[in-house]
Amino acid sequence: MKRVYNFSPGPAxxxxxxxxxxxxxxxxxxxxxxxxMEISHRSEAxxxxxxxxxxxxxxxxxxxxxxxxxxMPGGAKTQFAMIPMNLxxxxxxxxxxxxxxxxxxxxxxxxxxxxxxxxxxxQANPDIASIPAQSEWNINPDAxxxxxxxxxxxxxxxxxxxxxxxxxxxxxxTSCLLSQEIDISRFGLIYASAQKNLGQAGVTVxxxxxxxxxxxxxxxxxMFSYENFRDSDSLYNTSPTYAIYIMNLVLQHWQAQxxxxxxxxxxxxxxxxxxDCIDNSDFYxxxxxxxxxxxxxVTFNLPTPELEALFVDEAAKQDxxxxxxxxxxxxxxxxxxxxxxxxxxxxxxxxxxxxxVEHT
Length: 360
Ligand SMILES: *Cc1c(COP(=O)(O)O)cnc(C)c1O
Prior knowledge:
35% helix, two-stranded parallel sheet, alpha/beta, binds pyridoxal-5'-phosphate, 9 helices, globular
């Protein structure tokens, strides 16, 4: 059996220990004689698992008690619609700060349900290198919320600070939740689908302040209502039980490793190693202004697209996989979420140095 270093933007690597536990428990979970896949989402055993998963999130992320944690199906993209449907019931205005592909898609979806203000001028070129200062933003003061994407997964661009606005902040943290310490109390709603830092595809975590949950817009499907998911404790329909179980194992794993301080330490070491390699070479370039560089998705270019294609092929032969940049952006992208070990980034850096010498 071999295990590669998988630099995919998502689904991403999982900690090997988590996969081993899942393997060992596959046929008989916790003495039940069944797989987690086979147990009822309404059983006491699953209720315990769900409660424990919530508590792990609360402890790791320091989530205050006036925030609900919902486990929802449909992935992050479903939240693009759920957020305006639920938060714009009585006031249809919203601010959207577009800094890359994911926030642009969220804005387009919100435009179907509400009256959206573009906080930043529409970019002719979506590949912005930095985010304009807040003094230059066009904010609608009457809007119900302010939406942004702290980490733009395709571009490898991140906000260095949390925006300071007068309305509730809504953040798509799909590619950065659990990667750094955050002050949850600064936010109205945070969400992340699981397949990047939290587990496997199939479940999305929504962390929402109590007072923002109310009856959604009239035509909203009941499956899209935060109120229904709060009232049913995320068991409104058959929940994605196995995806929640895998998330539970991932959270337990990180807690045992030392929680957020340990995660942050690893992530800083990994990104420093990789960006230093890029900055110390004339062969690799990263377009993002240093203060706005992502810690999770490191994008870079080689001198030509032909060399980039060769780079990806040669890296794959060394078991360094999925390094092609998104087709909208091009170039190379190394996604280094929590489960990517420092040894994986070191292997990539060794390969990069070798490749640069051979092709300069
Ligand atoms: C991956 C990603 C998404 C899409 O997630 P799905 O679960 O596939 O819908 C949305 N936003 C960001 C920031 C992402 O990285």
